[in-house]
Amino acid sequence: MPVYFMKTKVAIIGAGPAGSSAAIALSKKGIPNILIDKRGVVGIPVQCAEFVGLNINSYVDLNNIPSAINQKIKFMDIYAGKNFYRFNGKGYVLNRAVFDRHLAGEAVKTGSKLLTAARVYRINRQKNSIDVLSAEEKIMYEIYYDYLIAATGPKNGFGEPKNGAYIYATQIKTDLLKELDSVICYFRTYIPYGYGWVFPKGKFANVGIGIEKPASDMPLSLSFNKFLNEIRSTGLIGLKIIEKTSGLVPVSGLNEITDGNIALCGDAAGLTHPVTGAGILSAVISGGLAGDYAAESVKASKNLFEDYKEELESVFKKSLSNAAKKRSELYPLMTDDLSIEKNIKQLWPSFEEYYK
Ligand SMILES: Cc1cc2nc3c(=O)[nH]c(=O)nc-3n(C[C@H](O)[C@H](O)[C@H](O)COP(=O)(O)OP(=O)(O)OC[C@H]3O[C@@H](n4cnc5c(N)ncnc54)[C@H](O)[C@@H]3O)c2cc1C
């Protein structure tokens, strides 16, 4: 197999929201960079329930990409045991495939080089290079970098996952039989250490559950079938399974952020919220920051990734540690309807009690 040698200032592994945001930040500052993803088409398959709060617009103006919005959302509804709560929950159920493709496209437009269907299978730290296998071109690249940004998602992409605890999630896209303007989360005894969701997207909905493993030994499929039966019995969703997906959500809070001239961002850095599992916005924010610091490092000929770490920790560490603590303290107590109803307000960030 032929091997091609390439050289760049910054190599970025992963063209999810984190990696593409890093590439955009670099290209806007005129720093040569290569964005690499093992997927043949950026954004596909979607492994996400796709809800994001309104504040995404401060980072990615969705007004300019209406096709990235599946549906606007007004409320967040919570069913906890037998109780029901409604909160202001303005935001969007995105079309993640379009959203992710848009970000990667912006990176290319501003100057990034994008390699798809290209899997990074080795980092050679001594040589500052990565080995990449391009399935499409049937060639290998050896790419030399000054700085590397790892935006590889929930697993670090190179063997063992780096994050501590994970939610194992499974989801279908199905028919939505009633109009909804809320995202709905369900806390049930048969979904231990996690929750179920129905997130509407017009005539369809993302319906899924996530359970922390190994904290719970409840089989995912058993729990998911129970959940589908419950929601179907209310007449909210139909029987069709249009798409199926699954994935991991890191829930132990921030992990390793830098390692010499390597910076991690998004899920790879453990930035998903340990209780809600939300990670799109923090991926965009952390990717942008990683790109900014890599650009400044190149310009100053000085590794500034320790400053990146400091800034990321100052923004996220406290809230993520707090959420991880709540998760590990409260979920074990939530074993029946009464204890779910009693603890939900301390667990879920929509409630005022969460912050006390
Ligand atoms: C079922 C589920 C539902 C979710 N629902 C929501 C939600 O409603 N709202 C929300 O905010 N968050 C949600 N999340 C979390 C959200 O999807 C992630 O936080 C977000 O995608 C993180 O972005 P990222 O760029 O860090 O990683 P990713 O989006 O995972 O992107 C990583 C990219 O790296 C590539 N890659 C990995 N390894 C390599 C390699 N070795 N070589 C080349 N490429 C590589 C992958 O192909 C991928 O494209 C959900 C997650 C799951 C699993």
Fold and architecture overview:
By secondary structure, the chain is of the alpha/beta class. The protein folds into two domains: 3-46 and 97-162 and 253-326, FAD/NAD(P)-binding domain; 51-94 and 164-250 and 334-355, D-Amino Acid Oxidase, subunit A, domain 2 (D-Amino Acid Oxidase, Chain A, domain 2, 2-Layer Sandwich). 28% of the residues lie in helices and 32% in strands. The protein contains six helices and 18 strands. It has helices spanning 17-28, 96-110, 220-233, 280-300, 305-330, 337-347; strands spanning 3-7, 10-13, 33-36, 51-53, 69-80, 83-94, 113-115, 118-124, 129-134, 139-144, 147-150, 166-175, 182-187, 194-201, 204-213, 243-250, 258-259, 262-264. The strands form three sheets. It has an eight-stranded mixed beta sheet with strand order 4-6-5-13-14-15-12-16. The protein has a six-stranded mixed beta sheet with strand order 7-3-2-11-18-17. Helix 1 (17-28) packs parallel to helix 2, helix 1 runs parallel beside helix 4 (280-300) and helix 4 runs antiparallel to helix 5. The longest helix is centred in the last third of the chain and has 26 residues, at 305-330. It is globular. The model has no long low-confidence stretch (mean pLDDT 95). The structure holds flavin-adenine dinucleotide (FAD). Flavin-adenine dinucleotide is lined by residues 13-19, 36-39, 47-52, 119-120, 151-153, 157, 169, 171, 208, 247-249, 266-268, 272, 277-280, 283.
Give a short summary of the structure.
With 356 residues, the protein is of the alpha/beta class. The protein has helices spanning 17-28, 96-110, 220-233, 280-300, 305-330, 337-347, and strands at 3-7, 10-13, 33-36, 51-53, 69-80, 83-94, 113-115, 118-124, 129-134, 139-144, 147-150, 166-175, 182-187, 194-201, 204-213, 243-250, 258-259, 262-264.
